[in-house]
Amino acid sequence: MGRSPCCEKAHTNKGAWTKEEDDRLVAYIRAHGEGCWRSLPKAAGLLRCGKSCRLRWINYLRPDLKRGNFTEEEDELIIKLHSLLGNKWSLIAGRLPGRTDNEIKNYWNTHIRRKLLSRGIDPATHRPTNEPVSDATTMPLVVREEEKKDFIGALGCDEEKSTSQERLPDLNLELRISPPYQHPTEPLKSGGKRVCFSCSLGLMDGEQCSCNSTSSTAGSSNSIDFLGLKSGNLDYIRLEIK
DNA sequence: AAACCTTACAACCGCACTTGC
DNA sequence: CGCAAGTGCGGTTGTAAGGTT
């Protein structure tokens, strides 16, 4: 017996949402909060599938959505994050406040792909389109042989100790993006300034941000080039390995 | 003005993952 | 441990709007 359908398709509306449906959904979520999407449509008096309600809320009705055109800074950030993360739209959206994964995905497919192609860059690999394709160059985060050694070294695992028969331990290469770690009690580096994540990623500048950082304005020569996002020379060696 | 084409984006679908029993 | 339900994600489709012929 297979999985039951997520909703009773015979009794649900499809297609574009009406103003009345939007109002009902917003009113219900304001009163009861998000969650339990499966039971929400019935409780809110909507003839919609729970998934459809969730999508409508997340992508269109949420009050914290930015809407409007993407800025040049957002464009560049999306390109750089995509080169790091690939088609992980939800992760990319997590770095762009007020933007949704669906919005970024659509924007990528309609605008940025073309923009990169016009620059002679393959949007899938982020490499020049005229560059010969090989296994070592097709994936954004492929670790080449010489770089594997760096990884092993960074993990504190001496390769010489592992015989060819010995199986290397399974590595969890789940990547987490975070600013360089600074211990709260450690003396401050970088000219006595702490690193602000928003500023170093270019999401805010020193004046907008409450970090009071004067040296972290996007583009400033004093600011940290986090993972090479500013220079374009991606530095995944510094990505934290769990 | 009409037909056709292109673009943009909302919405759907199916699969994978997580969680609870 | 296995199963089912619930949820989230990414790929794809449908269609309205605008542009071109």
Automatic annotation (TrEMBL):
Chief location of this protein within or outside the cell: nucleus
Residue ranges annotated for the Myb-like domain, each copy included: 9-61, 62-112
Protein name: Uncharacterized protein
A Gene Ontology cellular-component term: nucleus
Record's subcellular location: Nucleus
Classification via CDD domains: SANT
Record keyword Repeat present: yes
One of the Pfam families matching this protein, by short name: Myb_DNA-binding
Domain HTH myb-type, first and last residues per copy: 9-61, 62-116
Lineage: Eukaryota, Viridiplantae, Streptophyta, Embryophyta, Tracheophyta
UniProt-recorded Gene Ontology molecular function terms: transcription cis-regulatory region binding
Record-linked InterPro entries: Homeodomain-like_sf, Myb_dom, Myb_TF_plants, SANT/Myb
Keywords on record: DNA-binding, Nucleus, Repeat, Transcription, Transcription regulation
